[in-house]
Amino acid sequence: MLVKLTVICGFLFAFAELGFGADQTSYPNHASCKADWTFALPCTEVHDKLKAQIKAWKGPDNCGDGIKCNYKLTFSNGGAIRAKHSTPDLLFVDAMAFVLNESGGLCKLKGSSSRTAKSATLDNGANYCAMHNLVVGAKLHEAEGYTESSGDTACTQYSVANCEVYTPV
After folding, report:
1. In this predicted structure, what is the pLDDT of residue 111?
2. How far apart are CA 151 and CA 80, in angstroms?
3. Hey, how many other C-beta atoms are within 10 angstroms of the C-beta on 32?
4. What is the pLDDT of residue 119?
5. Percent of the chain's residues with pLDDT above 70
6. What are the angstrom distances between the C-alpha of 62 and each of 21, 97, 138, 153?
7. Whole-prediction pTM value?
8. Could you give the C-alpha distances from 64 to 61, 87, 116, 167, in angstroms and in order?
9. How far from 92 is each of 38, 59, 134, 143, CA to CA, in Å?
10. Domain coordinates of the chain in residue numbers?
11. CATH class of 29-160
12. pLDDT mean over 44-65
């Protein structure tokens, strides 16, 4: 009995060391991300800059090894933006939504992104990067009062995301 218990414990330890188990249960159960940003800017400016960045990265020209490409604007009004992002290999599409609210001289941006393939559970942080790269590409991260809030419990594989290089799942 002690030998079986030792083997089982050794297997469970190896399983955990390989990155399986408890730390992955903290991810959302579908490849997705939710993030919040704050800027000391009018929301009209944040909206216009995000919309312009989506349009600037609409085709495959900026892909290279990264994912700063293949965006498509699907809806825009003063308080919301919806877009889609396709990974460079064009196998995965992520649907994004941004909601803007202005309060006390700050623009609060809530973003969500989700892989459209219902079976997708992992994404190497691509949903996070699709939104984060837009904020950085629009240079909103340089704005006074800039904050970003997210993490592994809100974004699939947030802690392993490399927003400069696309890594297929």
Report:
1. 98
2. 23
3. 21
4. 87
5. 84
6. 36, 22, 14, 30
7. 0.82
8. 8, 11, 23, 12
9. 29, 15, 18, 31
10. 29-160
11. alpha beta
12. 92
